[in-house]
Records
---
Amino acid sequence: MKNMFNYHMPAKLYVGAGISGEVEKYIKGDSVFIISDPFLYSNGAAKKIGESLKGKKVTYFSDIEPNPTCESVDAAAKEARAVKADCVIGLGGGSALDVSKIVSCLTTNEGSIYDYYAGGTRVLGKRETTLMCIPTTAGTGSEVTNVGVYTNKKAGIKMPMVNDEFWADYAVIDCELTYTLPKGVTASTGMDAFCHAIEAYWNKEANPICDMLAMRAMKLVLDNVRTAYSEPDNVRARSNMMEASLLAGIAFSQTRTTGIHALSFPLTTEFHASHGVACAVTLPAFIKISTEEEAGKMQLLAAYLGFGTVKELAEGVERLMRDIQLPTKLGEIGVKESDLEHITEVGLSAAIIQLTPAKMDSETIFNLLKSIL
Amino acid sequence: MKNMFNYHMPAKLYVGAGISGEVEKYIKGDSVFIISDPFLYSNGAAKKIGESLKGKKVTYFSDIEPNPTCESVDAAAKEARAVKADCVIGLGGGSALDVSKIVSCLTTNEGSIYDYYAGGTRVLGKRETTLMCIPTTAGTGSEVTNVGVYTNKKAGIKMPMVNDEFWADYAVIDCELTYTLPKGVTASTGMDAFCHAIEAYWNKEANPICDMLAMRAMKLVLDNVRTAYSEPDNVRARSNMMEASLLAGIAFSQTRTTGIHALSFPLTTEFHASHGVACAVTLPAFIKISTEEEAGKMQLLAAYLGFGTVKELAEGVERLMRDIQLPTKLGEIGVKESDLEHITEVGLSAAIIQLTPAKMDSETIFNLLKSIL
């Protein structure tokens, strides 16, 4: 007997330019708690959504850092409980969405995030507060995953928490929210989406549903990220990038990621590269070795994306990264040869690295990193 | 503002050869009510699943006809209530799955299906009984839709009921259950899956997620239905057909269907064609006119499926239908020229017909039907 695959992605998706201003109809209850990045509070984006919720009591929380800490989560949960939030809206990049997931649970689950995570012994009960995720970057796909990543400052680690209560009730995908993204964020988050897609596609846990969504996501990134980068208010490019991020998010929500993400963890926490940069920098090198176990499938992908060979796909992706000013060498983000052994070790400690379609051991990873130093 | 698309398909999918014998782990509660077609009870398939549920009290119900009536539904609901079913399992083709959907709701909603449907004024409350759908044909996709179709014998009509409580908690896709399908059923249900996919793809409510799933579903049917037809226990062909049906089901669960299904209704109820036959017979003719509003998208599809033009795709599908002994002319299922006006009228009365990518009026439909008389 062979269990070919499982699939479960229960979020209700609403996709369209401008629809984040029309979410009132999905919200039951009176008290809405909007969690956003500080920038989205100061630029008025969070308030614009809050003000569209006629007759609701809206509370804003924006004390969120880029790699959100458990302390931020607990502070947000305290406020959400105080206002008896019926609905938690996460508005932002990955950080705000990740915080909204756990906070929407903590409104009716007592205690701290530490009680449920990273050695905590309590189990989250059924979420009773509505959770709506509204992404403002086209990259993380966090709106369609059941994962939140939180930083335990005391222990100095960043750890994912996976929980079925983290599936959003509503994922609202509005490309208008990305028009004001800085160029560098457009580039790095766009390549993060590409990594999600390709890591779902070549994943040892790949499945046909995710394969198809991932293929389309990669094509959309290749065809649109340059334009989104150079023409920030090009509606078609922004809309296509948002779609790419969504489809890639659904894909990797089922398969998880692989070596690219595993190695991104030390590059983010220790070298302070943004998540997308930390992922993209090893992407071309991983494409090259993916043929070790998935030659046929990768050749099909290369052809679908308009390349003759997998090597040409890797080169095309590297060219694209240069065009949108992303580093393609580890040296560009401050990594020295003497760091490679440590990065290898930390990367290998992430279980997802074994979902890569190539033998993942110290030697392979060290050599891969050295090839792009 | 443009709402590009919505998407929601919350069922948990478990896909694999033989996994219908391993469902015990998903079932909470003690009382399981298995609804199956009579054939699946007499051949032992229902009992095999029931007997795998160690320590559960299992009740079987198999008094289900091909186009299930409201009376059958009420009879099943009465028994399910009597045994206080915690879980309803639907095992079968479309009929048994459709009955299981409404029965799983009626266990904790009082009254008859007539109270909630076809003029009934009550609204189904939240379903409290677990619903598991296990398809035994590769075609209907009913396991991943929120639709049930029931026949009101008194009024002489067959009507779909759409309800979010009809999404299965678990859809268990086990191709081993299709090895014993008669050839004619393999052929007709396989083409039903193709129709679901193409009707989702060219649909006015099409969306990118469904497009990708539909494309793969169509390719799988074209590549596998001949083998599944001629070699009933070819595992690869059966598994691929099951996957096709699943992906096509997800696709049309979001978009609904179009003219092919609209015209199938009178062909089923009045000319007693099976559902798949009634759909497939107009499929090549509809492919030909789909270019009226979707020329570019249909050309892309033809290329993806290995055809030079949309016309060649239509011809290829017709050839395939002949190879698997399906009628390609209305005359073969007993339709006479004098029937065409009535079929046109009934087809046009179905709202879904207006989701077809061509002008749908009496003249067009009459001519389409006449072209395949």
---
Amino acid sequence: MPPTSIPVPSLRRLPSYLRRLHIAVEQGVAYVSSRQLGAAAGVPAAQVRKDLTWVDQEGRPGRGYEARALAAQLELTLGLREQKRAVLVGAGNLGSALAAYPGFGPCGLRIVALFDKDPAVVGKRVAGFVVQPVDSLARVAAEHQVDMGIITVPAEAAQSVAEAMVAAGIGVIWNYAPTTLRLDAGIYVQNQDLAAELALLSYQIVRRRGE
Amino acid sequence: MPPTSIPVPSLRRLPSYLRRLHIAVEQGVAYVSSRQLGAAAGVPAAQVRKDLTWVDQEGRPGRGYEARALAAQLELTLGLREQKRAVLVGAGNLGSALAAYPGFGPCGLRIVALFDKDPAVVGKRVAGFVVQPVDSLARVAAEHQVDMGIITVPAEAAQSVAEAMVAAGIGVIWNYAPTTLRLDAGIYVQNQDLAAELALLSYQIVRRRGE
């Protein structure tokens, strides 16, 4: 692991490079150029080369990067080869969808428990889990050495759920509720703001109308 | 609408600024500084000022940006005040969650119909919609002047669904399936790659273990 942390804009592009490299490996292609990697992330080749200095890989002039080796290095850097455990609070449709999402396992994530505060939902089977009451969060988090909490409750319930996660010793939170959480600076919160993503699509739609 | 399109990195920050401005307006705060806007998006104040030249707003030295006016301008630029219509294909958990998501309405998005190819699901009521067969997509898209297609089917079904959307005249696609779609260059595809988002969290979790 590098001693300094990778700057966020570079970090955000690494999964796009990795996805492109996986395609190359699947297709039996040995080398991928920085131009090809850049196309996958929407940046110029020079930016790719700069980003990849953080993961300590250099391309070969005229050939590019060795796809399998660079993919392995990126997986290592991003921690995708280590097992990580998460709990999910909010067993509604979005929570159920994430609990059953097939793309998380290959990234080393295992969701170990599902919680809800609604007594009508607690005890029911959702995506293969028996939904537990939020009161049990601290016990379960300690038992399973949980790394991350995923929040899929409505906006008005998110702050109290986040505080319960922090109290249970969880330091990384993936927040799907459309609200800004107020937590200690030491807690890493990643907001999955679907409305912000929609804004980018909205811009494209309205531009097309003007054409 | 500006004649040239806003560069993607700047564009991606505008929703963060907008969210921060909405908080200010809610709190009755009249001005927001570029430093405060930058904190919301994780960039320095100078970058904020540069980004906002695209939406034709200048701050006042020493006071910052007028929150209400800049929010209105950003909403206009991003097309959030115009009505946009979408269809959603894939009435599983994720599709149901998105169909019921309360954050889209305020952005001007209306989902007009839900589709699924599974005959066991077609005809059922999901999130207030009667699920329709994918065969009806072209007819419904023309009838409602649909702007966007949302794909929430499994990866292996996504390409054929995307092609059906394009054939129905839809030019903007929001793809939640964890796969790369191969479509004409004129089609705007935005991938919501949850595994890529997870990679950023994975990096944080593994770094914390090393501390």
